Amino acid sequence: xxxxxxxxxxxxxxxxxxxxxxxxxxxxxxxxxxxxxxxxxxxxxxxxxxxxxxxxxxxxxxxxxxxxxxxxxxxxxxxxxxxxxxxxxxxxxxxxxxxxxxxxxxxxxxxxxxxxxxxxxxxxxxxxxxxxxxxxxxxxxx
Length: 142
Ligand code: HEM
Description:
Elements: H1 2-10, H2 16-26, H3 37-57, H4 62-72, H5 81-99, H6 105-132
Helix pairs in contact: 1-5, 2-3, 2-5, 3-6, 4-6, 5-6
Bound molecules: protoporphyrin IX containing FE.
């Protein structure tokens, strides 16, 4: 996983803008939720990659960060879980595209494993907020 990040960095490829264009192509109505795509795309892309990398390392900071992410995103409206899933899958797909020849089966499998873990933790965080704090919990659009 680290090698693929290094390959993309060394090639000087910034995946965030193609990633966001891909996401908006799938969910055109979501574009207007963003005040600054430039600012948000840096942090959303970065943190999604960091969370997946952290999960692969078994890092303890990932869970609190996911719990916070889900809670702060309540300000952006009722975000369907399918959009979280798609954003995560598209992040892995764009990383794979940018990695090019160095993207092999083992690398893809490692990222996909973390992607699935991240999706599961987002579901868990949404459910726990709804349970612990029904009035202020993130709206569940599902
Ligand atoms: C694991 C996935 C995600 C991570 C790690 C993440 C992370 C972040 C972070 C850190 C910000 C703050 C950006 C800033 O103010 O500089 C942000 C903003 C935002 N995120 Fe996400 N996000 C994720 C998924 C999503 C999804 C799936 C959606 C929409 C369906 C979404 C919608 C937004 C919106 C609308 C903003 C506000 C941007 C603005 O005001 O311009 N995020 N996200």
